[in-house]
Amino acid sequence: MIINNFSLSKPSIYWVFYNSKEKVKIYKPLNINIVYFMNKSTYHVPAMDCPSEEQMIRMKLADMPNIKELRFDIPGRKLEVVHDSQPEPISEALASLNLGAQLVDSEAIEWQASDSTQMQHKALWIILLINFALFVVEFTTGWLSSSMGLVADSLDMLADAMVYGLSLYAVGSHLVRKKKIAKISGYFQFTLAIMGFAEVLRRFLGAGDLPEFQTMIYISLLALAGNVASLLILQKAKSDEVHIQASMIFTSNDIIANLGVIAAAGLVYWSGSKLPDLVIGALVFALVARGAFRILRLAK
User: Fold this and answer.
1) Distance CA 66, CA 82 (A)
2) Could you give all domains of the chain from N- to C-terminal order, each with its CATH number?
3) Which residues are registered as beta bridge partners of 110?
4) Looking at the whole model, is its pTM more than 0.70?
5) What would the pLDDT profile of 37-53 be if each residue is shown by its tens digit?
6) What number of other Cβ atoms are within 10 A of residue 213's Cβ?
7) Least CB-packed of 1, 82, 153, 171 within 10 Å?
8) Within 10 Å of residue 140's Cβ, how many Cβ atoms?
9) What three-state secondary structure class fits 115?
10) Which residues are CB-neighbours of 280 under 8 A, at least 6 positions away?
11) Which of 230, 206, 173 is nearest to 59 (CA)?
12) Backbone angles phi and psi of 247, in degrees to 5
């Protein structure tokens, strides 16, 4: 006897054995994949160049029950939508985001529900904790050593941690809650960026001491080691899912920022001036502000 459970979330098939002595039924799962016939619509999204746009799209399409899966290719500016309806409502929703989304193709496919991504979520949680820990260390030492480069890099770490946290916390949440979280995170991050720019300007006009280049190098090397470890964790996940790929992009950018702070420390030592530290600090603060604007777009 076979019982078939056609649940889209967790499809499963069981053999049912009847034990006459104990008068019980024993259910044993069969490893059979259930295939569903769906439509796959492919979109070219020119303005989708980072995970912020991916979150915008996810939030916009969250209330469409006919959508079964979203597949993002950020480097290729491509979005694939698996659904059981016509593509017109999806196209209209994407057009309202002003990302230049264009329907490239729509075809019938065979699709099966994906398994749990528990391993990927675990990797993201580990990286979130690494980013937050590095934020605390870099911000504290950066402020004590008068290095705006370290302070700015710490806020970049915090911004990444907030994006990871937003993505993980918002899973399964109502759309209104997602937008509220995005708005709070965006304004908080933008406020930090403005405060950072103000401090850079204050120090440029003469305030503040010469940064301790040794501290800049030591702490940046620690942050670099943390980011390299994060990148190895992501590579170990071996996933093509967007949140893993996006995290790899984030982490790679963080490594570049760490190297920039190390280079600025060397220039501070060579020139005896705090200007290199202020320049790298301003550049990283600009990245933080750019990320804040993109997060705020999620809340619209």
Assistant:
1) 9
2) 1-34 (no CATH), 36-111 (3.30.70.100), 118-298 (no CATH)
3) 37
4) no
5) 888 999 999 988 776 67
6) 22
7) 1
8) 14
9) coil
10) 148, 149, 152, 260, 261, 263, 264
11) 173
12) -65, -35
Q: Rounded CA gap, 32 and 238, in Å?
A: 24
The C-alpha atoms of residue 90 and residue 106 are separated, in whole angstroms, by 12
The Cα–Cα gap between 213 and 276 comes to 11
pLDDT at 242 over 50: yes
Query: What are 129's two structure tokens?
Result: 């904790």
User: How many whole angstroms separate alpha carbon 190 and alpha carbon 288?
Assistant: 7
Tokens, residue 94: 């994407």
Contact residues for 157 (Cβ-Cβ < 8 A; gap 6+):
131, 132, 134, 135, 138, 223, 254
Q: Give the span between the Cα atoms of 211 and 248, in whole angstroms.
A: 31
Give the C-alpha separation, 245 to 229, whole Å: 15
How far are the Cα atoms of 16, 154, 164, 199 from residue 233, in angstroms, in the given order?
41, 21, 15, 35
* C-alpha radius of gyration, the chain, whole number: 24
